[in-house]
């Protein structure tokens, strides 16, 4: 049997990490509607749900890691630098078909039939800003939109994709300086926001600033730095020496557990904040610490003991990770509309406030199940076929340019 060696190309354990982070975020959104607080025996998971929006930062760090991984291989292994045009084409094939489909489906199936816009100009503005990934720049299209509140994350990612090749080039040439600059910009932005609130911003909360791209540059920097460190660690891993490899796996497992504990500790402290402004300020200020904790999990999982690697990197996790973006796009909108429709039926008018536990459990399970089913169908019927068509179009365009 060949000894186990992590590689710098396919890292199946990160599928499980992505699924875990998205699962917590979706559970938080379902909890907002159901108020069902589960526990494991006497151990309450209340804090995990109350801070369940924070794993979004982890998904963005994971994105930065995976995006920079080919550049890290170019730096340390001498591989070719990724083609910028192909970088953008891959992002379009992966994101745009499903995103456009869900956005327009919500418009036609929810927003218009339920008259959720005051007038047609509001509708046009909302749709145009969503289709151009600029909805985070306007409160009406970011916070009050009826066609996908959770889609702001995709907008931030698409905004980051525009500048990522430039960031990657700078990181390749001056890793330390670029890392410091990205961290510094994010920290300075938060410091300025905190120092001038509320005199300059005139806000009762930080809704319009907490999740802007500048506030995530340190998370992207941590992901990019983790990719570079990971490629180096893979080269150092003593696969051929069984005892040393077992020692690596033991240490990695311990560090993974400690990083997970650190992440959960941050969630618990964040859940203790009171008031919208304090919650959002805490989220901004704890973002680097959470990024370090998630980076710790990310870096240690591929080197951990086999049972943990199997748990996070099996085929089921791979399939769930493949549909996770569409699940994320769909889940919150589905949860809100199911409750609006009274599905499943409840005894009281406000079953969440009444603590109607049968309804709470049924509603939560229905949200999970229908979101997963919808995500699988969108992936199979929309994302994959459209990606094939776009790939052929891009290939045809390349051939025509050569001719």
Low-confidence stretches: none
Overall geometry comes to: globular
Q: Count of helices?
A: 16
The amount of beta strand, in percent, is under 5%
Strand order of the largest sheet: 1-2
> What is the N-to-C order of secondary-structure elements (H for helix, E for strand)?
HEEHHHHHHHHHHHHHHH
What characterizes the major β-sheet? 2 strands, antiparallel
Radius of gyration: 22 Å
Helix fraction bin: over 70%
- Strand element count: 2
Span between termini: 50 Å
> Mean of the pLDDT scores?
94
Which structural class do the helices and strands define? mainly alpha
Description:
The chain has 16 helices and 2 strands. With 403 residues, it is mainly α. The chain has a two-stranded antiparallel sheet. It is globular and about 65 Å long. The N and C termini lie far apart (50 Å). The model has no long low-confidence stretch (mean pLDDT 94).
Concise summary:
Helices cover 74% and strands 1% of the residues.
């Amino acid at each position: 049997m060949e000894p186990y060696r992590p590689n710098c190309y396919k890292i199946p354990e990160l599928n499980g990490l992505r699924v875990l982070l998205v699962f917590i975020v979706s559970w938080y959104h379902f909890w907002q509607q159901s108020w069902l607080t589960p526990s494991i025996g006497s151990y309450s998971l209340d804090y995990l749900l109350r801070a369940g929006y924070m794993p979004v930062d982890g998904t963005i760090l994971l994105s930065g890691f995976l995006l920079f991984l080919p550049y890290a291989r170019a730096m340390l292994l001498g591989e070719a630098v990724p083609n910028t045009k192909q970088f953008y084409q891959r992002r379009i094939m992966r994101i745009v078909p499903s995103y456009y489909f869900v956005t327009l489906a919500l418009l036609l199936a929810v927003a218009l039939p339920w008259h959720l816009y005051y007038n047609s100009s509001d509708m046009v503005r909302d749709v145009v800003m969503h289709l151009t990934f600029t909805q985070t720049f306007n409160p009406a299209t970011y916070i009050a939109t009826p066609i996908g509140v959770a889609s702001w994350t995709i907008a931030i990612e698409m905004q980051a994709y525009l500048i990522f090749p430039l960031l990657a080039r700078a990181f390749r040439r001056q890793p330390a300086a670029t890392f410091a600059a990205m961290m510094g910009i994010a920290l300075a932005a938060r410091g300025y926001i905190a120092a001038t609130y509320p005199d300059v911003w005139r806000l009762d909360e930080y809704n319009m600033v907490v999740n802007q791209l500048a506030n995530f540059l340190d998370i992207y920097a941590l992901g990019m730095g983790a990719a570079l460190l990971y490629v180096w660690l893979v080269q150092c891993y003593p696969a051929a020496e069984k005892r040393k490899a077992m020692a690596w796996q033991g240490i990695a497992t311990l560090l993974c557990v400690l990083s997970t504990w650190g992440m959960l500790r941050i969630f618990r402290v964040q859940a203790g904040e009171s008031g919208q402004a304090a919650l959002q300020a805490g989220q901004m200020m704890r973002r680097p610490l959470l990024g370090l904790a998630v980076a710790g999990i990310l870096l240690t999982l591929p080197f951990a003991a086999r049972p943990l690697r199997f748990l996070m990197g099996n085929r089921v996790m791979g399939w769930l990770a493949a549909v996770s973006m569409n699940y994320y796009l769909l889940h919150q909108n589905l949860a809100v509309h199911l409750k609006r429709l009274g599905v499943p039926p409840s005894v009281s008018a406000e079953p969440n406030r009444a603590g109607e536990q049968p309804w709470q459990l049924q509603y939560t399970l229905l949200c999970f199940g229908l979101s997963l089913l919808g995500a699988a169908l969108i992936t199979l019927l929309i994302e994959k076929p459209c990606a094939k068509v776009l790939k052929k179009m891009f290939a045809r365009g390349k051939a025509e340019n050569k001719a």
